């Protein structure tokens, strides 16, 4: 479904191309690594920043996503306080410090 969204297939024909993609490794039908690989190999989409946000803290998953050119890898946290801190760090780095054109 993520690839259909990017390619504006069927019900997604009128959607805007995203400025940033935040996704989990564990997606239905096609996993996040496959979507990441599609995005980074597609001339039309490869400049879109992709942030992997997942519960996996496996060094193998992290290394694979970074080798597939993920712009960041963020491990999901357990408590509300940790989640708020993670969101603030994310916002500080990706929203406040980067200007999209």
Please provide a written account of the structure.
The protein is α/β, with parallel strands linked by helices and 101 residues long. It has one domain: 3-Layer(aba) Sandwich (Rossmann fold), CATH 3.40.50. Helix content is 42%, strand content 12%. The protein contains 4 helices and 3 strands, in the order H-E-H-E-H-E-H. The chain has helices at 2-7, 32-41, 59-67, 80-96, and strands spanning 21-23, 50-54, 72-75. A 3-stranded parallel sheet has the order 1-2-3, covered by helices on one side. Helix 3 links the parallel strand 2 (50-54) and strand 3. It starts with a helix and ends in a 5-residue tail after the last helix. The relative contact order is 0.14.
Note the topology:
Layout: H1 2-7, E1 21-23, H2 32-41, E2 50-54, H3 59-67, E3 72-75, H4 80-96
Parallel strand pairs: 1-2, 2-3
Order of helices and strands: HEHEHEH
**What's the average pLDDT?**
89
Count of discrete structural domains? 1
- Sheet-strand content, in percent, reads 5-15%
Indicate the low-confidence ranges by residue numbers.
none
- The H-level CATH homologous superfamily, spelled out, is Response regulator
CATH topology: Rossmann fold
Shape: globular
Structural class: alpha/beta
Percentage of residues in helical conformation: 40-55%
Specify the CATH class: Alpha Beta
Describe the sheet with the most strands: 3 strands, parallel
Structure annotation, total helices: 4
User: Which CATH-level-2 architecture?
Assistant: 3-Layer(aba) Sandwich
Number of strands: 3
Rg result: 14 Å
Intertermini distance: 26 Å
